[in-house]
Specification:
Number of domains: 2
InterPro entries: FAD/NAD-bd_sf, Flavin-dep_Halogenase_NPB
Number of helices: 9
CATH superfamily of the largest domain: FAD/NAD(P)-binding domain
Protein name: 2-polyprenyl-6-methoxyphenol hydroxylase-like FAD-dependent oxidoreductase
Largest sheet: 8 strands, mixed
Bound molecules: flavin-adenine dinucleotide
Structural class: alpha+beta
Number of strands: 22
């Protein structure tokens, strides 16, 4: 959506092909504060003032220590970002994008892509065909276009089990906090949403997750019970665990090059990060904006904007991989655990 909006800003006509959004809630609601200037660039400065979002006031973590350590926005940690209602947030950007006359929205899935001379032909699932001079791959972790032209690298196989828990005991006033807890086979994240649902995510490697987790609520309850602080928050906050979690890939993947002649990958299609970074959405906004600017320049005949874009994405990936190793390296309590050894 960011790429479409930036292309429209540059007066480039866009065909935006993507299926209709799913009604299933999407995981990921921690938005880094570095997203704010990017939203301003897209003319969406007020978006975070809408109901459903809140500033993170306090973050607790048990990482590298059995103690629960508190960071608040008045302390050294500075701005801790936002907890957003993901569907409200994405819908707001969606409405702004479809209002642009330069953008034609096609509700379909791209199934094939052919290149001849200076143009591309995209065929969709329903058989429609579209021609264009440039293709932007924003297909998320599929990297549907990018993987045809370069290598998709995978640096780990992190997986997520997640659910949004409902408060069954409404007499309890839940704490508007975010909590991260490292455990022997992975780590937990929980945050309270404005509508009082508790987003709970468990991250581990697929071979270390209990078998059948995605189908069995008792297994989900059992592993929640193995956490010290997450389970306590669920119990004392009056939240119910009534169904098995959804499962998703959450590993780090990135293309060897994020762009080439006539194409660029943006968002997770270019580089998808471990959610520990809480930078997936911000990176999608940034690459969407910068990838679209590079595409517009390339279409105008400027020689190397795609190379510059690709180098900046590669630099971001390399900084992220170094930062990730440092954060995982702070946890020494589980020396025999395959999960921590792999990181
Ligand atoms: C469990 C989990 C927790 C996360 N938590 C956070 C968090 O707290 N904070 C954060 O910033 N990030 C988080 N992330 C990461 C964040 O969700 C992603 O980085 C972000 O969604 C990337 O946006 P995107 O637009 O690139 O890809 P996506 O959101 O995956 O969107 C891709 C789009 O492409 C469409 N598409 C796919 N294939 C085709 C095709 N062939 N033709 C047409 N359309 C297609 C899809 O329908 C979809 O609309 C989390 C991720 C996971 C898995």
């Amino acid at each position: 959506m960011a790429a479409c909006m930036m292309l429209a800003e540059k007066n480039v006509p866009v065909i935006w092909i993507a299926p209709e959004g799913s009604s299933k809630p999407k995981p990921g609601e921690s938005l880094a504060s570095s997203a704010v200037p990017l939203l301003k660039t897209l003319g969406l400065a007020c978006i975070l003032e809408a109901p459903g979002h809140r500033k993170v006031e306090v973050l607790f973590s048990s990482w590298g220590t059995d103690q629960l350590v508190e960071q608040n926005r008045t302390g050294l940690a500075g701005d801790l970002g936002y907890v957003i209602d993901r569907s409200v947030f994405e819908n707001h950007i969606y409405c702004a994008a479809v209002r642009r006359p330069e953008i034609s929205r096609c509700f379909d899935t791209a199934v094939s892509l052919e290149r001849s001379h200076d143009s591309w032909t995209v065929t969709t699932n329903s058989g429609s065909q579209f021609e264009g001079a440039f293709v932007i791959d924003g297909t998320g972790r599929h990297s549907a276009v990018g993987r045809k032209y370069t290598t998709l690298n995978r640096s780990d196989k992190l997986a997520a089990a997640y659910d949004f828990l409902i408060q069954v005991d409404q007499d309890i006033e839940p704490t508007p906090a975010t909590l991260i807890e490292a455990v022997a086979d992975g780590w937990w994240y929980a945050t309270l949403l404005q509508d009082r649902r508790l987003a709970v995510n468990y991250y581990s490697d697929p071979d270390l997750m209990p078998k059948g987790l995605g189908h069995d609520v008792e297994t989900w309850k059992r592993i929640i019970g193995q956490s010290r602080y997450i389970s306590r928050w669920i119990d004392t906050g009056g939240f119910g665990v009534s169904r098995p979690p959804s499962l998703a890939s959450a590993g780090t993947t990135y293309l060897s090059t994020a762009a080439g002649p006539g194409w660029a990958a943006v968002g997770d299609a270019a580089a998808a990060f471990d959610p520990l970074s809480s930078h997936g959405m911000t990176s999608a906004l940034w690459t969407g904006i910068e990838g679209a600017k590079a595409a517009a320049l390339w279409l105008d005949g400027t020689s190397d904007p795609l190379m510059q874009y690709q180098n900046r994405v590669a630099e971001g990936v390399s900084q992220y991989i170094t930062g990730r190793a440092q954060i995982y390296g702070r946890e020494h309590r589980f020396p025999g655990s395959a999960f921590w050894q792999r990181r």
